[in-house]
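Escalation from tier 1.

The customer reports that the assembly of two entities below gives different structure tokens on two consecutive runs. Tier 1 could not reproduce it. I'm attaching the input and our single run for tier 2 to review.
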Amino acid sequence: MIRASNLSKFYGGKRALGPVSFEIKDGETVGFLGLNGAGKTTALRILACDLRPSAGTIEVGGVDAVAEPHEVRKRIGFLPENPPLYTDMNIVDYLGFAGELRGMSRAEVRKRLPDVLDITALGDVSQDPIGTLSHGYRQRVGVAQAIIHQPKFLILDEPTRGLDPVQIVEMRNLIHDLKQNHTVLISSHILTEISQTCDRLLVLGRGKILGVGSEGELAAHEGEIRQITVTIRAPKNPADPYRGDAPKDKEPSAPLDPKADIVKVLNAVAGVKSVAEPYEQGGGWLFALETTQDCRADVSRAVVDAKLDLLKLDYSRSELENTFIRLVGGADASN
Amino acid sequence: MRATSIIYRRELGAYLRSPFAWVIAAVLLLVDGILFQGYALQGEQLSAIVLERFFYFSSGVALAAGLLLSFRLISEERQTHSLVLLNTSPVRDTEIIVGKFLAALTFLAILLLLSLYMPLLIKVRGKISGAQIMVGYLGLFLLGSAALSIGIFASSFAKNQLVAGVSALAILFVMLLLYLFAKKLDGGVREVLQELDLWWIHFQNGFMRGVLNLKDVVYYLAVTYFFLLLAVKTLEAKRWQ
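Tier 1 run:
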């Protein structure tokens, strides 16, 4: 287990992180999510014992990382944002060097190498100098050095940074495989990557934790706001605010403002929290509704009862992106 | 010290694979050879004087080699981010610095040995003792070792290689000019500064003339230790910044 208590880091007089407290259980895959400058990399570098915290305590597997960093380093594999590679070495020599640095004997490295090359799919280029490899391969070598000593905890800082779409999928599959044997911490500002890979999220903003939990828990914590979009045909006859094809003997109640009337109809539906200003789309008006429950049936019934033409109705549950934007937006507003 | 040995092997391998290191060695040996031919062997001289002249300009070569081989050692790793591997491995900062220093020192020793043919030529043709040559080479080795430690220290605090190189050069110049500064002063300060000078007192008056003084050996070892210690402390401090 990793346990951080009141962890802070200052660069000069500038606060980069904290105070933050969190726990990561064995076997979990936790995503550190945040905008650039949120403190993700600082937090991960402290966990990897690359940096020392300005204040607070951190325990990794029951060992105090500040008092006994060497013990912690043996248990951790770290892939920083820029993989720490020696471009003049070939992959096998480099991994041997990384393994020996982590306390492995040469025999242990020799025994472990085939597995690592297999996991990271580097077998074909194992004798190539690292300087000649593509960015995707270099990233894999970075992962290989992080797992060579079979650490219990694996810390990956922006593992898909700079990769092309194919390489991103490959890296995601690699991380899925690594989850079987390691407690994995991943940082990213790419939401889809985090949501597809992690069991639990830790949302950071301006050095503070803004939310912790699974994607669903974070959404629920935020009131589980859902969004319904309703497209209604714009009335053809201004005399009739509602139906374009309605008889013209009916006098409208003045003043005429069909959009405002429709907003009133939609607002009256139970569960609708707010209705955004409509805009025109495909010959109709699109109304975006924020709701606290799934009230699609009530909305469609209200629209039909009001003798409006319902062209389209879309429903979206609050997704990670919305939750993230709300959390980060909240942090910005409070600062 | 197991980690020191692992880092030493990697760094020495990097020197031996690096065109940069071999280019430095080739250029410095070429300069050494030209000066030997064009300066040391000029006119009819006692062979002891020729040897002194050889060690005189070879000391410049040793200083230059020391700086050029060391100023990139940490700063380059910081720039290319490979330092993170060392920083996140169970390795002490002392082991990192000592491993790198010993690798650079080994390459420096190789470079110095490659120049050995020049004093051997003097010995074949003149009357000098092997001890004189050994003392001179010990001086070059110690002088180069001090320059290496200054370069590693500059490399440990600099963010990039250019700053590291310029800083190392500046420190070296100050250390070389202390004797001249001291001549303008009086009393105890003058003596202290003169003794702290990197070349005039301890090399020119000692090793260059084939005179082995224990205080000169201790001085160079102390300078080397001092700057290596500063480098270790700088690396440690960087983790807190």
